[in-house]
Amino acid sequence: MVLPLAAPYADRRRHHRDAAHVDRAPDPQGLRPPPNRPQGVTVPHITPEIQALVGAKGPVQTAPLPLGADTLRRFMQAVMDPNPVHYDEAAAKAAGFGGVVAPPLQPQHLFQRAPGAPDPFEKFKEDADWDGMGGGGNTGLPKVELPLKRLLNGGYSCEFYQLARVGDLISRQSRYSSITERESSSGPMVFINTETTYTNQHGAILMRVVQTTIAR
């Protein structure tokens, strides 16, 4: 993503919707209910206990290290964003940022394993089926216990409020924003939306990300 140099980012929001949202895409896998099975058909998978999880928040998690200039450089190159506002002070100030800023999605990628933390791959010795996520994808939220064991990534939606800067210490907190269900031609599906808010050390919101997980 190349940011326009003419407009400051602080008061702008950009929305991205993943193409996997089935209501707007072709339906080769039969995700939409057939005509004789309307949307909203109740299936007995969301119990009162599961519904009570909506709004539940996980703990505030803080990145192990502040954003460094070299971390910013490597991320900028990895996402192939050559915008000079990410490395040139003069260009960033001319664009209204006041200084070098990180690419919009940088905060999401600052939660690597902390120095001195155990190697997550050691867990394979205990559980050969472990998913290998480690701490990076752990929201701290209670698990949604469902009999539907197939999990699909239903896509992401992002809102950007302002950009991180070198030296920022990023925190995040997740919550279940909604848990809904529908009946498809291939059986029941449950949609779990997890909203994660990223802030800097001053409490300013940098971005919000909603991840949709589909259980079927």
Helix content: under 10%
Question: How would a textbook summarize the main sheet?
Answer: 6 strands, antiparallel
Task: Give me the Rg, rounded.
Answer: 20 Å
Give the overall pLDDT as a whole number.
82
Q: What's the arrangement of secondary structure elements?
A:
Layout lengths: L14 E3 L30 H4 L9 E2 L6 H10 L10 H6 L56 E10 L10 E14 L2 E13 L5 E11 L1
Please tell me about this protein's structure:
With about 220 residues, the protein is mainly beta. It folds into two domains: about 10-65 and about 140-215, Thiol Ester Dehydrase, Chain A (Roll); about 70-100, no CATH class. The chain has three helices and six strands. The chain has helices spanning about 50, 70-80, 90-95, and strands at about 15, 60, 150-160, 170-185, 185-200, 205-215. A six-stranded antiparallel sheet has the order 1-3-6-5-4-2, with no helix packed on it. A hairpin with a 5-residue loop joins strand 5 (about 185-200) and strand 6 (about 205-215). The model is unreliable at about 1-25 and about 35-40 (pLDDT under 50).
Report a brief summary of the structure.
It is built from three helices and six strands. The chain is mainly beta.
Features:
mainly beta; Thiol Ester Dehydrase, Chain A; disordered N terminus; 25% strand; 2 domains; 216 residues
